Amino acid sequence: MALTGLDIYKKLPQKNCGECGIPTCLAFAMKLAAGQAQLEACPYVSEETKTELSEASAPPIRLVTIGTGDKAIKIGEEAVLFRHEKTFYNQPGLAVLVDDGMSDAEIDGKLAQIKNSQFERVGQLLRADLVAVKSSSNDAGRFTELVKKAMGTEFPLVLITDNSEVMKAALLVCAQSKPLLCAANENNFEQMANLAKENNCPLVVAAKDLNALSELVEKITAQGVKDLVLDSGSRSIKDSLKDATFIRRAALKKKFKPLGYPIIAFPCEAYDDPYMEAVAAAVSIMKYAGVIVVKDLEPWRALPLYVLRQNIYTDPQKPMQIDEGIYPIGEPDENSPVLLTTNFSLTYFTVSGEVEASKVPCWICIMDVEGLSVLTAWAAGKFIPENIGPFMKRCGITDKVSHRKVSIPGYVAQISGELEDELPDWVVEVGPREAGDIPSYLKNWSN
User: How much is the pTM?
Assistant: First the structure.
């Protein structure tokens, strides 16, 4: 049974020094019991106590690393059921499936797809994360050659085969890259666990239901393998969602160790329809997969999944924002309109999208208000004339245009007079209240 906060407190130095970042040892102990702090944060705890409390201070969901170097991904170590309770930390890895039963041309196309499937949004690079290499031929030689080819992408690998001999052959060429081995089941778990332990690789544990999965996890951890990823065997959206929710609840609410690991999902095996596969992948992003294997990441399905993942795994207490500055839309010149707004990412993308739709080249001046929307920033005293005036002077827009006319959002029309006092050389015009009216507004704009 997990130790309570009071049990942990009795074993701490009880100095109340605050050096761990928490004011008192009792509060620190409570956070340890809840899995919200790490024992290493205490500089005075003894090694004996560390050993004794290691289980109590371990996160309820184990952190697992797949791959090495800059492209390695970390999954697990989540602390809440719902993002708004705190935040989600380690976003799921999207893996594109290649199979040694495919033709060489098809394999090359898939590997090129994963390297090229990337977009930039809000200053972040959105891309796939892994290559899932499957052996359907059961031919160790062909599988190994495909693994070698997949290694050329430099993305972490998921090796999919239940044949331990085929897995062993592949590991001879890629073990140093720390692939995820998929999967150990009730028939091969001893051999697969040995391979994972010998090569220091994480291992997927697969079973037909959650009871069998829990029992199998206990057998494998008894062999000394700690970095595990769970496959409940469910494939449909309904069953996968049910199992993923149960696993997360059991780990967080009940501290049930056999299910305290990240999850792998296989939309690629659930649906032949690419639209349904994309829907299943989206559900797995939200609830609660650590790795999601799909057949393809063509742009039409990749971008929505990337953006959904980015939104879900953004800290809700820290709004998504873009850098302060001047953003040209189209190819604006010295006579082009100047729009002013805040650096809340949704505001920027909504405004820039409408400007692009208008076909009118434009300068958008983005002011840093800590990622708040226009009305919120105004109410918070951040998007006000006293701050906007200095921003307009320092941002460099005066060097970009020959006119002196700026349009502000219609929702803050009341600041126009005071802003003209701050910018005596400028004409401040009140723009539309709704972004959808920007195209017609710009077409009637003149300096």
Answer: 0.78
